[in-house]
Each structure stands twice: as C-alpha cells, then as structure tokens.
Design goal:
Elements: E1 2-4, E2 9-12, H1 14-20, E3 30-33, E4 39-42, E5 47-49, E6 65-67, E7 70-72, E8 77-80, E9 85-88, E10 100-102, E11 126-132, E12 138-145, E13 159-166, E14 169-176, E15 181-183, E16 192-195, E17 201-206, E18 211-216, E19 223-226, E20 229-232, E21 241-245, E22 248-255, E23 260-263, E24 272-275, E25 294-297, E26 314-319, E27 329-334, E28 339-344, E29 347-352, E30 358-360, E31 371-372, H2 374-378, E32 387-390, E33 395-400, E34 403-406
Parallel strand pairs: 2-3, 9-10, 23-24, 24-25, 31-32
Antiparallel strand pairs: 1-2, 3-4, 4-5, 6-7, 8-9, 11-12, 12-13, 13-14, 14-15, 16-17, 17-18, 18-19, 19-20, 21-22, 22-23, 26-27, 27-28, 28-29, 29-30, 32-33, 33-34
Length: 408
C-alpha cells in the first residue's frame, strides 16, 4: 500500500487494509480497496463502510445491485437509456418499442404475486395490469380479484378478468372464475373469433346476432346456429353431413355433391335411400330408374307401413300431377267399411272388402279380363279357377277340373 499525498487517503487491497491493523491509521483516514471497490472511513476505533461511494460493477448498461456488500452487474440484466428498455435474459431488444422484455435465455420465466402470510391477504384483493392514455383514462386492463372467502389462510379461490374500454364503459372481454370461464362477461356487442391454421378455419360467436358460426374463411358457411334456426353448409359447397347412431356410423348421411339423403348408408343411390336393419341386398338392381326418387332396401323383407289411429277414416297413398287440384290416382283403406279402394281421377274404380270380394264400381267402364290367344293360353301355368277371354275362339273360358271350358 502507499500514502496518497497528505490527504490520508490510502489505496490497497482488502487484505492489505486488514493486515495493517487499526493502529496503523488515524481517525478520519480513508481507505479505497482496489479489489472490491469499497471505500472505508476510520473512526478511531474501527473501519466504517462509506456507503456514499463505491465503484460500479459489471459493464456499461448493466443494472447495479448489491452483491454481498459490493456493487455488481449482470450481462442479462440491462437498461437501454436511449430507448428506455429494461431487458432480462438478453442484451438486445427485439425492437425499439418494448419498455420491458424477457428473453428465453432465462429458464422458467414467471411473474409471481405471493401471499406470504394470512395477515397480508387483503393486499391481494385486487391486483391488475392497467393501460391508460395520456388523460389517465383506462383503455384496457387485466386483473385478479379475490372474494371475501379468499382472505383466509390457504384459500386459492378468486377470479381473473381481462377488460377493455368501449365508448367509455368497461367491457369484460374474458372472465376466469374458480369453476367457470366466460367470454364477453358483460354481454356487450363483442364478437369472439377463433382461427385455425392459416386463418382458414374460423369459429365465431356473433354477439350482435346472438349466433354461433363455424366456417372456412367465412364464418357460418359450414354451420350457423342462432335462435331463429340452424343452417348447415350455408355456403352451398360440397360438404357432406353425417349423423351417427348407437353403433351405426351412418344413421343419416347427406351427400352434398349429389344432393342425396341416405339413412343407414353413406352412398345413397337416389334422392332418398333407406337401408333396413338387415343391410344391403346381395345384388343391387341395375334396372332401378333415375326417376325412382325413393328406395327402400333391406336384405330381408322390405315393407312400408302407413299407420293411423284406430278411428282414422282413411289411410291413403295418393299421386298428383304438377299443378293439379285433385289427385290422379290413389290407393286407400277405409277403416269404417274395412275396404281397400283403388281410384283414378278421384273416382273409385275397384274395391276389395274384408271378405275379399272385388267390385268394379265404375259407371263409365267395365271389368276387363285378360285376353289371350289359344297358344298364349296353353303356355300358362294353368290353375283351376282361372278366367281368360280366348281371342282365337271369341269365348270366355275358365279352368275347371284341370281343363279349359267355354263359359258360354
């Protein structure tokens, strides 16, 4: 060590100051340690640290902190005076705009607000991050609020909210409670939009329309749910629709490309195609016509039932022409008379009663039996009780006793 002029200021290492002993110095002497940067003042009895002086630690822009009694700095904890930026975990901000930035070189980044004791729990009743404009008016904020039950030790209940200011009023955009999550908690006209990859798939809750919409590019072109109704494929694209049943993959299937409805099938062959519980037939008929709009298929009996009440007067299958005011034909059952009725042009032509008696009721026509030549008649698989009109002989003939006989 060495004496600096007559100011009684000594410069040396910490070890040199300690080794010299107190007796080597006078009250008021100053000692600057070159290895620690600390400055001590001798009070005649002991060395006292001069807290008003000391050399900065670290490098330029590094924020100073007390490290075991000395100034120190860290390359990952800096302040940019020009851009007014505080950086943790990095040396350069991503841009000139952030005032506070944490980089991934710091592991397990988190911001903790800790309740160290129950007596301080009330200090956690409302903790928030607030954004204000130059007029000190809130523009947006996020806060966590604890309820009265949360002031007890060990309780972790509470809620968090993210809010914005719209037209001077607070709108809670998101609310996170202990048991639920709300979006648009204040029921304001704020839409909620969820984007998929490449912004193609979207889901939107339209607050103004009270609608939930799902779409590709355009919300709602796949599905639109609202109080007035539900629309699927509003964009009219080639998007099929399927409803599965209990162990049935295709309870209902709509083929949008072919505009066909399938029940029990994903490949409907006509506008309506119903496959029964026994499944598809072994060989689908190639003769089914393009105009056959409704198909019933079952690999067993394929029945169609018309069911009415016990007091219903009529169960009918009616056929109409375009623009007609009356049906062109009908097959119906009269419950009161136990009669099957066949009609054309709204007029009854045939009836079959409960005893199997067939009646022709036309007043403008007559019952016509099958007309065959003798050759055609002989080609029949004949059975007793058959009646034909033989055009070769000009006779009505009946089958009786295994032979054809003239009836007149």
């Amino acid at each position: 060590m060495y004496l600096v002029r007559s100011l009684r200021t000594f410069i040396g290492t910490n070890a040199e100051r300690v080794a010299a002993g107190l007796a080597a110095f006078l009250a008021g002497d100053e000692f600057i340690e070159t290895d620690t940067g600390l400055v001590y003042i001798h009070n005649g009895m002991a060395w006292l640290l001069n807290s008003s002086a000391g050399s900065p630690g670290g490098s330029d822009t590094q924020i100073q902190f007390n490290d075991d009694g000395i100034f120190d700095g860290d390359s990952l904890f800096t302040w940019n005076k020009t851009d007014k930026q505080l950086l943790v975990g990095g040396t350069t901000a991503t841009s000139s705009t952030p005032i506070f930035e944490v980089h991934d070189s710091v592991a397990n980044v988190r911001f903790n607000v800790v309740n160290d004791s129950a007596s301080n729990a009330s200090n956690l009743a409302n903790i928030g991050f607030y954004l204000k404009n130059d007029a000190e008016a809130y523009k947006a904020y996020a806060f966590w609020t604890a309820g009265s039950v949360d002031l007890a030790a060990g309780s972790e209940d509470g809620y968090a909210a993210i809010a914005i200011i719209r037209n001077g009023s607070v709108s809670n955009a998101a609310y996170f409670g202990p048991n639920e999550i709300y979006l648009n908690y204040n029921s304001d006209n704020i839409d909620t939009i969820i984007y998929g990859e490449n912004d193609l798939f979207t889901a939107r809750i339209d607050a103004g329309e009270n609608a939930f919409q799902v779409g590709i590019v355009t919300p709602g072109n796949i599905a639109d749910f609202r109080s007035s109704g539900v629309v699927f494929n509003a964009g009219e694209g080639d998007r099929d629709f399927r409803i599965a049943g209990n162990g049935v993959p295709n309870g209902y299937f709509y083929d949008a490309g072919l505009n066909r409805h399938g029940f029990g099938t994903a490949t409907p062959q006509r506008v309506f195609h119903i496959i029964g519980p026994d499944g598809v037939v072994s060989s689908f008929p190639s003769s089914v016509g393009a105009a056959d709009l409704l198909l019933f298929e079952n690999n067993s009996n394929a029945n169609m039932a018309l069911i009415g009440s016990a007091t219903a007067t009529s169960l009918a299958l009616k056929m109409y022409k375009s623009g007609a005011t009356v049906h062109a034909g009908a097959i119906s059952y009269n419950n009161n008379t136990d009669t099957m009725i066949i009609q054309t042009g709204e007029a009854t032509r045939f009836t079959i009663d409960g005893n199997g008696i067939i009646s022709c009721t036309s007043t403008t026509g007559a019952f016509k039996v099958n007309s065959l030549t003798t050759t055609q008649r002989n080609a029949l698989t004949a059975a007793n009780s058959m009646i034909v009109y033989n055009t070769t002989t000009g006779k009505f003939q009946g089958r009786a006793g295994g032979a054809w006989v003239d009836l007149h």
